DNA sequence: CTAAGGCTTCGAGCGCGCTTGAAAGCAAGC
DNA sequence: GCTTGCTTTCAAGCGCGCTCGAAGCCTTAG
């Protein structure tokens, strides 16, 4: 029962875009709100779009994770490409990938296609890590469900 | 397809114990390896059983999360009860619950049944948090799957 | 009796990922 | 020209959750 509930929640979470449309989403822009205008975004706009602070965006640049262009006055200009990368970075950070690993990965990306095998390996490792993490979360979720059931007077049993 | 794979992974993760047996697991001991012997465990044994360091166990005690008894020489003795609590704590920590929240919760537990509504609330909040986190991990997992597919030469479409 | 290896307490240190603050430049409205 | 509010760089600080090291006590084997 708890397991079933978990699955239903996962389904609800990733259902909207039917499985085959997911690829298109990734390819196109990773996030519908980004492609709308092709105009580069200021650091504040970019921050708002990806849900980070301007400070964090500057920090990411300093760490070499993203390289927005600059306008005549030295202001940052985040292109759709930069925003896509930021979405990727955010997703990976939220899933627990470390800054160190993201730096390594980004470096490989900038070195061109010859590093694809290395990048693939990193993604496979992340995939494993995330899968383990989901397993752990499943256990924790069941534990909260159990406690709540007990607090509600374990109506079954 | 990615979604289906995700669900299958979740299923594989929490399948062994059939849904209805999960409650029993929680009630009995949370972890089969613990109940075997009723003898209290030393800090090192307890650490090994729950997968933490002895340093961390002492730290948790210092923070009031667990209260193992002491033997004549002042050594810690972790009972089955203490170990159960440690498993709970570990599970919650791994799911991202903060030390602060765990301290609050533990304090409520030690204040007796009158705090059950508060505890229930905390568990409901955690349940929400974990569910959101699983959603995020789902996105990240799809992203790694997408990248890997691309690196493999996107054999489909 | 001694040596090895557990255990104790205490306080300081650390790694990660930001976060904040200071000082100053640029843009747009009044 | 002045003000308001964005932007820049740089360096220092911080909160969390451990993690480590020192100094000394207890227990068991030889």
TrEMBL record, chains A, B:
<dbReference type="Pfam" id="PF13411">
    <property type="entry name" value="MerR_1"/>
</dbReference>
<protein>
    <submittedName>
        <fullName>MerR family transcriptional regulator</fullName>
    </submittedName>
</protein>
<feature type="domain" description="HTH merR-type">
    <location>
        <begin position="42"/>
        <end position="108"/>
    </location>
</feature>
<dbReference type="InterPro" id="IPR009061">
    <property type="entry name" value="DNA-bd_dom_put_sf"/>
</dbReference>
<keyword id="KW-0238">DNA-binding</keyword>
<dbReference type="InterPro" id="IPR047057">
    <property type="entry name" value="MerR_fam"/>
</dbReference>
<dbReference type="InterPro" id="IPR000551">
    <property type="entry name" value="MerR-type_HTH_dom"/>
</dbReference>
């Amino acid at each position: 029962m708890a397991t079933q509930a978990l699955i239903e929640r996962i389904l609800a979470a990733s259902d909207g875009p039917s499985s085959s449309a997911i690829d298109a989403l990734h390819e196109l822009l990773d996030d519908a709100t980004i492609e709308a205008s092709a105009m580069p975004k200021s650091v504040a706009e970019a921050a708002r779009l990806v849900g980070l602070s301007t400070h964090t965006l500057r920090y990411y640049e300093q760490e070499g994770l993203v390289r927005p262009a600059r306008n005549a006055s030295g202001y940052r200009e985040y292109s759709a490409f930069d925003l896509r990368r930021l979405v990727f970075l955010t997703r990976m950070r939220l899933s627990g990938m470390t800054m160190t690993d993201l730096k390594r990965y980004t470096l490989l990306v900038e070195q061109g296609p010859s590093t694809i095998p290395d990048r693939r390996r990193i993604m496979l490792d992340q995939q494993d890590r995330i899968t383990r993490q989901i397993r752990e979360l499943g256990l924790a979720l069941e534990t909260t469900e159990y406690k709540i059931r007990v607090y509600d007077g374990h109506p079954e049993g």
